[in-house]
Here is the input.
Amino acid sequence: AKNCVLSYCQFNHNTGNGLVGEQVTIDHSTAIGNSEKGMKLSNNSDIKYSTLNENGYGGINLTNSKMTECTVSNNSFNDFGITSSDSHITNSFVTNNSGGGVNSSRDIYINVNIANNDRSSYGAGVYTTTETQFVNCNIVRNYNRYASNTASGGVYASSSSSTFTNCIIWGNVTFRVPASSNIYGDATYSYCAIEGGATGTAN
Here is the structure.
């Protein structure tokens, strides 16, 4: 789909992706039970008030797009609930995904609840590589099954250019090292409530 508005649509139970879209506006729609991604959206797409559940290879890929007030949950272990780059995600829920919560690069996440996700590699709640901002987000009760001293149940950040401001990062667990379950890596934390503490401003 390209250059169109899709309202109250169902992209459900397809072999492959539910929807691949470019410059599309989507609202009040679902992508449920597809064998691959729920959706792949790019090039100034905008998705609102929609649900992406129980897909076989993660919930959604976002590239240079926006997501507002969506739920991404119960997607398969094969990939993260959300994989995003150069995108803006607000007021959404990313929960109970068995491939991890969020894989992010150069994004802005505001008021996003990332909870109860699990993964068997780095970053069960959030895996971020560069320049992502997390503001007013909850990253809680995620579980990492990866047997590594560098695994993280909450946040795995490979770059100090990613920032977390006024976030709650709590109750995350790893298979091997509970003491470092909540954060690992080089991100900058400010005014956050982090179980076990963190360096930074007013944490």
Q: What stands out?
A: The first strand starts at residue 5 and ends at 7. The radius of gyration is 16 Å. The chain has a mean pLDDT of 93.
